[in-house]
Design brief:
This protein is α+β, with helices and mostly antiparallel strands. The protein is built from seven helices and nine strands, in the order E-H-H-E-E-H-H-E-E-E-E-E-H-H-E-H. Helix 4 crosses helix 5.
C-alpha cells in the first residue's frame, strides 16, 4: 500500500478476499500499528494508510516480491505449468476484448491469454498474439520491487513491444497493471 486507500478500493484490488476476512486483516494490521484508519468527512468514508512502522517492512516485502517474480515470470517454476489470475480488480476490465499476448523473458517465450476478466499464463510460443513484450529477468526483478515501471523499461529499451503500440493499454489492463481500463479503438 503506497498510498491511502478506501476499503472498497482495497476489496477491488484483492479479488477473491471475503469482506469479513479483509475487515479482520485491516483491524489486525491497525492494532499492530502497520496501518492507520483515517475517518474522512461525512460521505467520504474511511481510508487506510500505511504508518512509519508499516513502511519499515519495505525491505522484507521487496525481498518477497523479488522471490515471487520467479513464479510470475516462469509459469512452470512450481511444476504446474499454467497459472490463472483474476484481474477483475481493474475497473472496466469487462469491456476488454479477449486476446492472446506473448511475453519473452531472457528469450524464453510464454503465452498470456486474457478472457472474461482472467489471465492465463503458460510456457510456450503464443499462436496468434496481439502483442509480444520482450524483456529481461533483471528488469522484471526491478519491476516487481517497484523500482521500475513498464514505461521506464520502454524508455530505457529494456522492454521491447513487438506489434501495434496501440495495443499497449490492452496488455497493461489484461496483465492487471492498470487499475482502470477505458476502452478505445485498440483493434488496429
Amino acid at each position: 500500500m503506497k498510498r491511502s486507500s478506501r476499503y472498497g478500493e482495497l476489496a477491488r484490488r484483492l479479488p477473491g478476499i471475503g469482506t469479513t476476512v479483509l475487515a479482520d486483516r485491516l483491524r489486525k494490521l491497525e492494532s499492530a500499528g502497520l496501518v492507520e484508519r483515517q475517518v474522512g468527512p461525512i460521505g467520504a468514508g474511511v481510508a487506510y494508510a500505511i504508518t512509519d512502522r508499516g513502511l519499515g517492512l519495505g525491505d522484507a516485502l521487496e525481498a518477497l516480491r523479488r522471490w515471487g517474480v520467479n513464479y510470475l515470470t516462469d509459469p512452470a517454476a512450481d511444476g504446474v505449468g499454467c497459472h490463472s489470475y483474476d484481474v477483475h480488480y481493474v475497473d472496466g476490465i469487462d469491456s476488454l476484448e479477449d486476446g492472446e499476448f506473448g511475453l519473452q523473458i531472457d528469450g524464453e517465450p510464454s503465452t498470456l491469454r486474457f478472457a472474461g476478466g482472467y489471465l492465463e499464463h503458460q510456457l510456450g510460443q503464443p499462436t496468434d498474439p496481439i502483442l509480444v513484450v520482450s524483456t529481461s529477468s533483471a528488469f522484471m526483478v526491478r519491476w516487481a520491487a517497484g523500482t521500475s515501471s513498464w514505461d521506464d523499461g520502454l524508455d530505457s529499451g529494456e522492454v521491447v513491444v513487438i506489434g501495434s503500440s496501440q495495443q499497449w493499454n490492452r496488455w497493461l489492463a489484461a496483465t492487471g497493471y492498470l487499475l482502470a481500463y477505458e476502452p478505445r479503438d485498440d483493434r488496429t
